Amino acid sequence: MTSLALPVGNFRTGEARTCDTTGLPVCLHAQRFIKLNAVCAVVALLVGAIGAILLGLTRWPAVHLLPADWYYRVLTLHGINMLIFWIIFLEIAILYFAGTTLLKTRLASTKLAWTSFLLMAVGAVLTNITILQGTADVMMTSYAPLQAHSNFYLGMILFAVGALLGVGNFFACVWIARRDKTYQGSMPLVAFGALAAAIIAVVAILHGAIALVPTWLWSLGLMDAPDAGWYRLLWWGIGHQSQQINVCAMVSTWYLLATLTVGAKPLNQLVCRSAFVLYVLFINIASAHHLLVDPGVSAGWKIWNTSYAMYLAVLASMIHGFTVPAAVEVAQRKKGHDRGLFGWLVKAPWANPGFSAFFLSLIIFGFIGGITGVTLGTQQINIIAHNTLRIPGHFHATVVGGTSLAFMGLCYYVVPLIFRREYAARALCRLQPYLFGIGIVLVSIGMSFAGSYGVPRRHWDVEFSGAPFAKGFDSGAHVMLGLMGIGAVLAFVGLLTFILLTVHAVFLGKRNEGRAMTAW
Ligand code: HEM
Ligand SMILES: [Cu+2]
Question: Which of 15, 259, 413, 464 is most exposed, with minimal Cβ within 10 Å?
Fold first, then answer.
């Protein structure tokens, strides 16, 4: 260990080390919880990935793999493990990193971190067991009056409370850092983005509690069924806002990876920070786009929320969509890559999986995710696209091609820097983001266009085989569903490659303690 001297910050003896690559301080308590949460995230990703390939092969009519009951069970399993467990475990890890290393402070409370972690882990296991027992085929949204076994809701509530405690620990780190003046000037941009995510998380989880606690009591027979309209309004208070936590965490990851991979620095702190503030202020309103066909809310309410206010949150993403590549461009030009308009981009480190994952994530999220999102969120279009495959076509470009791919890029740095283990099979690592990126683009495009033909989402058999009157979709829809199926196979292979490479690196990778990580 080279890091016996205590790094700058408010650390006590033996509590921190200096990173041999970046020179940043690493709180050893935080390091443990970053590891624990990241490992759980990857386990959830594996469960979700098995679900992904089963679903892809079921929605491809030529294969139609699963029977009806297992389709809905696996749909529930996939949605929850991917969107909730994989992403939130990793986000808590990001908060511990941003709240300690970037602010040069120690973790506020180890006890709180343990409580948070155990609640999240127990909650995730309980929910997964309940789903696999076949007593919770209610899908991720668990809309009342559809009812699951009470342990399903209990597991989700435990997980959410655990996540809230993790967020609380992060706020405490921010407070300690300010009290001890561990950094000069304003907090670093990546930590600021994490703070925006944490603020939205509190509002989101409170909505989740108001939706799920009465639903849990109802499943125990202690209360009447919650009103279906109110349930949807409140559920999307967590369902949509948590997507903005994901966007904040993803954009922060972009800024971080841009710095780690090409040494980029944000060009204008005020512009970047204001964009994060726009997320905090306007994203709750955008939840209304999930209620556009609901009878309970008025047309005026829908139009105001989705046509005016929502664009202020979209604006924030568009700002980051320009500031992040601009920062990369300036850094690249400074290094002498300044031929023509795009010489800087051509000469970017495309063989570094941290860079390729981050930049592909930016492109997929920005172009496919952004365009589909803004169109689907328009009332007139939503009435046509509602509950078709266009909807999963959109979010597989945002949370999968965007957030999940960016998080994979992050892991290519977290494992060498925090676990201090090296990835093996470097050529495969370099290929992985492309494999996954191309696969998920095909999934997203296939779903979106199949949805334009009217193919519904969450539907086991769109051919209605065995029905007295034959009613299927024409060949155009089938081509698109086939495209989705092929994309699903590619994306699954990309995902499995990532998981195997990462698990291998974490447990068997060559140690790099005492020296800088092997550069990509
Ligand atoms: C190999 C990568 C993936 C493939 C091939 C894939 C494929 C699919 C398919 C075919 C469906 C079913 C759509 C339907 O029948 O309505 C689905 C649903 C879904 N996926 Fe994925 N997916 C992948 C990764 C992910 C990831 C990483 C996330 C989240 C971070 C995610 C989130 C979801 C959600 C939330 C649903 C909707 C569940 C529901 O309707 O209740 N997927 N996915
Ligand atoms: Cu939404």
Answer: 464
Pocket of ligand 1 contains residue 477 by CB under 6 Å: no
pTM, rounded to two decimals: 0.96
Residue 76 lies in a domain: no
Q: What is the pLDDT of residue 1?
A: 43
**Angle, CA 90 vertex, CA 88 and CA 91 arms, to 5°:** 60
Looking at the domain assignment, is residue 456 inside a domain?
Answer: yes
CB 186 within 8 A of CB 248: no
Q: Is 391 in the pocket of ligand 1 (CB under 6 A)?
A: no
| Residue 291 included in any domain | no
Rounded to the nearest whole angstrom, what is the distance from the C-alpha of residue 258 to the centroid of ligand 1?
28
pLDDT of residue 5: 66
Domain membership flag for residue 70: no
Which residue segment(s) compose the domain that 461 sits in?
Answer: 349-520
Segments in the chain below pLDDT 70? 1-5
Query: Is the beta carbon of 392 within 6 A of some atom in ligand 1?
Result: yes
Q: What is the DSSP letter of 103?
A: T
What is the DSSP secondary-structure string of 403-443? Answer: IIHHHHHHHHHHIIIII-B--S-HHHHHHHHHHHHHHHHHH
Q: How many domains does the chain have?
A: 1
